[in-house]
Design a protein that fits this description.
The chain is α/β, with parallel strands linked by helices. It has 5 helices and 9 strands; from the N terminus they run αββαβββαβαβαββ. The longest helix has 18 residues, at 108-125.
């Protein structure tokens, strides 16, 4: 990627991150914390999920159906049994695109296809549930991707650090890495 292409991508990411697509005013006076795991390795299901359950808390595990039983960053990812065990324990499964591709690199048509593939994978696995929430792989997002996610999911989460309070954008919720 040339320097011009990198600058253009960064400018588009900045604009995309700051234009509200699905604004929502938070009404809760109580703080809320959400524990999420992206394209999660098997250890997140077997260790992270169990830690949350010990404290009677549920998490959201964002799946890439194409990573089931595969390796990502040299770590074994979830299995179908891990997904079923998490659902049984009361955790939520969210979408993270089927092939774990960066939304910044996809056309609108490719993004819609990736979303559909992940939905089909999950429907085959768990017929009575659907994927309600989304996390952008690598945090990569565009305005077009946010509009598509806003129409398909209740929420979509990026990787911008911060606290979600006041008026938030349900198409690009903030997250803090731990």
């Amino acid at each position: 990627m040339t320097i011009i292409e990198r600058i253009k991508r960064k400018a588009l990411r900045t604009v995309s991150s700051n234009v509200p697509v699905k604004p929502f005013r938070m009404k809760s006076g109580q703080p809320v914390i959400s524990f999420t795991f992206d394209d999660f390795p098997q250890t997140a299901a077997k260790v992270g999920g169990k830690i949350l359950e010990k404290y009677e808390v549920a998490g959201t595990f964002y799946i890439c159906g194409g990573l089931t039983d595969e390796y990502e960053a040299e770590m074994l990812c979830h299995s179908e049994q891990d997904l079923l065990d998490l659902i049984k324990a009361g955790h939520e499964i969210g979408s993270h695109l089927f092939h774990h591709k960066n939304c910044e690199d996809l056309s609108k048509e490719e993004l819609v296809q990736e979303i559909a593939l992940n939905g089909q994978y999950f429907k085959k696995l768990q017929d009575d549930r659907r994927l309600l929430n989304f996390a952008y792989p690598f945090g990569g997002t565009t305005l077009a991707a946010r509009r598509i996610a806003a129409n398909k999911y209740v929420t979509a989460r990026g990787i911008r650090p911060g606290v979600n309070s006041g008026v938030v954008d349900f198409s690009n919720l903030r997250a803090n890495s731990i």
